[in-house]
Design goal:
This protein is of the alpha/beta class. The chain has a single domain, classed as Rossmann fold (3-Layer(aba) Sandwich), CATH 3.40.50.1110. The chain is 43% helix and 12% strand. It contains nine helices and five strands. The protein is globular and about 50 Å long.
Length: 224
Amino acid sequence: MKRRLFNKITLSAAIALISISAFAAPIKITCIGDSITEGVGARDRRTQTYPAQLQTILGEEYKVMNAGTSGIQMNNYLPRWQGKIKAFQPDIVTIKLGTNDTKGRRHNDPNNKAAFDKRYKESTLKVLDFLNGLESKPKIFLCYPVPVFKDKWGINEKSITEDIIPSITEIAKEKKLPIIDLYKALEGKGNLVPDGVHPNEVAYKIIAETIAEAITGKAPADKK
């Protein structure tokens, strides 16, 4: 089931490759997300979050903004961050939200799924409308959430695979946006996610490498 889902959209090099010459230096990247983007689970959030490690991988030709907040969901993201993102005017945006959104899903209620899916899609489209309205007209990448290896705090794996990922797939197809498959990047790597939800700094490096490869079309040198 999961493999068939992931194969629906493949991030091809033709879509992912962004020419550095298309932007003025430095190329500005905003990483939208929750506590996983903020860096919960890393020993040093100054250097070991995935946005920080993405900055290190990409180098001085890029400037990476960490726009992650613990506990945030898609439907309440913009009030917290739209001012800062507008001031930053990113050239590239990655969106990795959905993990906290699983808290609202009641699996024994079929009516709840329709309402849940509708709310998540509408919230995502509002974020996309905001980004598309920026003067910088950023290239947008949607990211599948990483796996949940232990259900806790209301966050659950079932909603990641049955609700959030299908919704992202549908939105990406509708809006013709590339997907970065962070679920696959950490699949089977529960040992790098100590509390079952938040990756450690080693896993954050894998996330950063995966994003860097999607943005540049090339694998980081130390990943080869």
